[in-house]
Amino acid sequence: MSRNGVRVLALVVTLLVATGSLAAQAPEAAEQAPQLEKAKVKIALKQYDQAVNALLKAMQEDPKNPEIPNFLGVVFLQTGNFDAARSYFKRSIRMDKNYARAYNNLAAIYHVRKQYKSAIKQYKKAVEKDPQFLLAYFNLANAYFAQKKYLQAVDTMHKLVQIDPEYLMKDRGGLEIGSLDIDAAKRNFYYAKLYAQVNDLEKVVHFLKLAVDSGFKDFKELREDPDFAPFLPDSRIQALMTQP
Fold it and tell me: N or C: which terminal CB in the chain sees fewer CB atoms within 10 Å?
C-alpha cells in the first residue's frame, strides 16, 4: 500500500532509448551530465531522493522547461506522494498546454485512485495533444477495461494497433506512467479479440494462450463471439479450449 493507502497499480517508469537514456553510462559519466539528464539516470536507478535534488537544480537552470515538473511528478508518484505528483503534473501542463505526457501522468493518479472518469478525461487529452502517443492509448483502453467498458477498450486498442501493430507484444516504457488494473485473463482475451478483428491469427493464438494460462475458462464466450469464428478451427485454439 502507498502512503495514501491506495494500491499502486502496474506503474511503468523506464527510460526510452529514443530519449538518449543515460542509464547504461558509467556513474562518473552521469555526474558530468546536465542536471535534467542526471535526474533521468537517478529515476531509472530508483534513486529518488537524488533525482529530486537534481530536478530542483534543473528547475533553477531551466525554469520554463515543462519536462522538469513532469519528472518531479513521476518521482513523487512512484514514492506514493500523489498530492505532490498531481501538483507537479498540473504545473507542467500550465507551462505547456500541449505537453501530452503530463496529461497522461496526471491521468495515472486518477487511475490509481480508481477515479476512472477523471482518468479517461486526461488520457483523452493526452492522445488529442499527441495522436501518436501510444502509451496514452494503452492507458486509456485499460481505464475502459477497469470500468468494464469492453467495447470502448477494444476500440481504443484498435486505434493503437493501427499505429503500431506490434505494440502489445513489446515492453512499454518512457518517462511516463502506464497502468494496468484489469484481470490478466480478461485483458488477454480482449487483446486476442482485438487481433481477431484485424485478422492476425498468430497474435490471436498468442493472447488466447496467455488468457488461458492466466485462468480464462469462459470457452462458451469464445465460441459464441463472431470475431473469433474464423479462427476456431485452428488446432492450437482447439487445444486451448479442451484444457481442463
Answer: C
The answer to whether residues 34 and 98 belong to one domain is yes
pLDDT score recorded for residue 128: 97
Distance (Å, rounded) from C-alpha 9 to C-alpha 6?
9
The parent domain of residue 34 ranges over 17-130
Q: Which secondary-structure segment (H or E) carries 237?
A: helix 235-241
pLDDT at 78: 86
Residue 138 burial (10 A CB sphere; 0-12, 13-18, 19+): buried
This prediction has a pTM of 0.75
Number of domains the chain contains: 2
- In this structure, the answer to whether residues 98 and 198 fall within a common structural domain is no
Residues in a beta bridge with 174: 14
In whole angstroms, give the CA distance from residue 131 to residue 44. 26
Give the HSE-up count for residue 142: Cα atoms under 13 Å, Cβ half-sphere.
26
Show the cell assigned to 218: 469462459
Report the alpha-carbon distance of residue 3 to residue 48 in Å, rounded.
Answer: 15
Apex 140 CA angle, 208 and 202, nearest 5 = 25
Burial degree of 233 (CB within 10 A; 0-12, 13-18, 19+): exposed
Rg (CA), the chain: 20
**Residue 159 near residue 134 (C-beta atoms within 8 A):** no
**Cβ proximity of 90 and 106 under 8 Å:** yes
How high is the pLDDT of residue 181?
A: 53
Give the separation between CA 76 and CA 242, rounded to whole angstroms. 47
Of 130, 145, 166, the residue that ends a domain is 130
